[in-house]
Amino acid sequence: MPDPRTLRVALVQERNQGEADANLTLIETRVAEAAAAGARLVLLQELHNGPYFCQHESVDEFDRAEPIPGPSTARLGALARRHGVVIVASLFERRAPGLYHNTAVVLESDGRLVGRYRKMHIPDDPGFYEKFYFTPGDLGFEPIDTSVGRLGVLVCWDQWYPEAARLMALAGADLLLYPTAIGWDPDDAPAEKTRQRDAWILSHRGHAVANGLPVLSCNRVGHEPSPLGAAGIDFWGHSHALGPQGEFLAQVGTEPALLVCDVDLARSESVRRIWPFLRDRRIDAYADLLRRYRD
Q1: InterPro entries per the record (predicted)?
Q2: Ramachandran region of residue 78, left (φ > 0), alpha (ψ -120 to 50) or beta?
Q3: Of 142, 156, 173, 179, which has the maximum CB count within 10 A?
Q4: HSE on the CB side for 182, CA within 13 Å?
């Protein structure tokens, strides 16, 4: 019998196919492939239903949003039930008129919507104008219980913040998951592109090491032009799975790919016994972390 603490996971790294139906149709194909390969957990990329529309500010883009539960959660839930897998997806949530979130949802293997996480850290940078669209999350850093474990789901910009990873770990997450849409300006110098991508991967390895947890990060790929006439974004892919010492379990490159690998969830216990970072935390001395800056 397979080890119940060994979890086969799949990450779906893809190009934008246009609109929601085309993207969801492709996702259905990839999830079927993942299930056939024995995966029990499938992670999708950030805002997978369409283009990364935050390269500009336009009220028309709000038409992409949908309620949760809604059409996409119904379709993804049916997909999860059909293949008996847990799916972590990423949607543009319409919560109320004028109130929208960048929201990850978790569909259980029986098709139920068992949890959601609203992106907490919202960027506002050239090409990533997310503050125009997304209200910061208000659900906190709470892992979502599923049949495959407690999932510490975070979203893209959250991946740079050690506080977010730590709070998920302190709440008992079994692994950290990052649906992501990150890339570089095509006009950047090659050395700058390499530094950006390496820093992104290094941040995930740091979260894995500091918390003794596996980390899954799923990014999109392909060039997406800017509606403003700028250079657009080349999404760099490099989706990966890490073990609790920051080791690579699997990684893919810059093309569409289905990453499938096994994650040994029991290793976190062993690693934390030899690197007891949670034991040695000086929680009596961390009050200043609640300040913006120590002037």
Answers
A1: Aliph_Amidase/BUP (IPR050345), C-N_Hydrolase (IPR003010), C-N_Hydrolase_sf (IPR036526)
A2: alpha
A3: 179
A4: 22
pLDDT grade for 3, boundaries at 50, 70 and 90: low
> How large is the average pLDDT for residues 238-266?
98
Which residue in the list 46, 61, 93, 130 is annotated as catalytic? 46
Q: Tens digits of per-residue pLDDT, 186-233?
A: 999 999 999 999 999 999 999 999 999 999 999 999 999 999 988 999
Domain residues for the domain of 162 are 6-289
User: Do residues 32 and 83 make contact, with C-beta atoms less than 8 angstroms apart?
Assistant: yes
Q: Give domain status of residue 1, yes or no.
A: no
- 54, 156, 218, 261: the catalytic one is 156
**Residue 146 within any structural domain of the chain:** yes
**Single-letter code of the amino acid located at 287:** A
What's the number of domains the chain is made of? 1
User: Quick one: how far is CA 66 from the chain centroid?
Assistant: 19
CA distance 26 to 41: 17
pLDDT at 5: 87
Find the catalytic residue in 119, 218, 224, 261.
Answer: 119
* Helix, strand or coil, per DSSP, at residue 61: helix
Helix, strand, or coil (residue 96): strand
φ, ψ for residue 60, nearest 5 deg: -65, -25
* CA atoms of 197 and 251, how far apart (whole Å): 13
Residue found by looking up tokens 């893809």 in the block: 14
HSE (CB half, 13 Å, CA atoms) of 41?
28
The answer to whether residue 30 is domain-embedded is yes
Is 295 within a domain?
no
How confident is the model over 89-117, as pLDDT tens digits? 999 999 999 999 999 999 999 999 999 99
Give yes or no: 131 in active site. Answer: no
User: Minimal CA–CA distance to 9: which of 54, 37, 46, 42?
Assistant: 42
Domain CATH number, residue 175: 3.60.110.10
Residues paired with residue 96 on neighbouring β-strands, in sequence order: 99
